[in-house]
Amino acid sequence: MASRVSTFLMFEGKAKEAMTFYVSLFKDASVTSIKRYGPGEPGTEGSVMMASFSLNGQRFMCIDSSVKHAFTFTPATSIFVDCESEAEIDTVAAKLSEGGQVLMPLGEYPFARKFIWLADRYGVSWQLSLTNA
After folding, report:
1. b/e sequence 76-89, b meaning 16+ C-beta within 10 Å
2. 69: pLDDT strictly greater than 90
3. Pairing of strands 58-64, 7-11
4. Nearest CA to 118 among 98, 131, 108, 132?
5. Which residues pair with 11 in a beta bridge?
6. Is the pLDDT of residue 133 over 70?
7. What is the structure's pLDDT at 86?
8. The dihedral of CA 104, 9, 3, 1: what is its sign?
9. CA-CA distances (angstroms) from residue 48 to 51, 70, 85?
10. Binning pLDDT at 50, 70 and 90, where does residue 63 land?
11. Over the stretch 116-126, which tens digit does the pLDDT of each residue have?
């Protein structure tokens, strides 16, 4: 059996909201599983103990951490998306940047016809690219 590689995202109470938002952005996307904390378990009852979702064939896992940490997401690690069309990059960039922070504005760069780097409203870093090819 081949090893399975996933991206793991740790939220503080917003895992379900973020996962639902991300799945809404892409045609080939779905929530594949969700397990919630129950009564007497270490996390807030009803919050996400473990969930998984898929975006265009890439598997992600997310949780609502029951432990408060002194860290959050960092732009040093990004979700990179090669967009199929100008319409896709424009739409996804607009939605992801709402309430977030643009790190490199949507525009033409030597390495891409269109590119944007941003941190979304949850702090997750994304790089969206429409290449010249």
Report:
1. eebbebebeeeebb
2. no
3. parallel
4. 98
5. 64
6. no
7. 96
8. negative
9. 7, 20, 33
10. very high
11. 999 999 999 99
Q: What are phi and psi of 69, to 5 degrees?
A: -115, 155
- The residue whose two tokens read 């040093």 is 76
Q: CA nearest 21: which of 117, 99, 76, 107?
A: 99
Task: Tell me the HSE value of 116 on the side-chain side, using a 13 A CA sphere.
Answer: 22
Q: What is the DSSP letter of 120?
A: -
Buried b (16+ CB within 10 A) or exposed e, 115-128: bbbbbbbbbbbbbb
pLDDT score of 45 = 93
Helices (H), 34-85: none
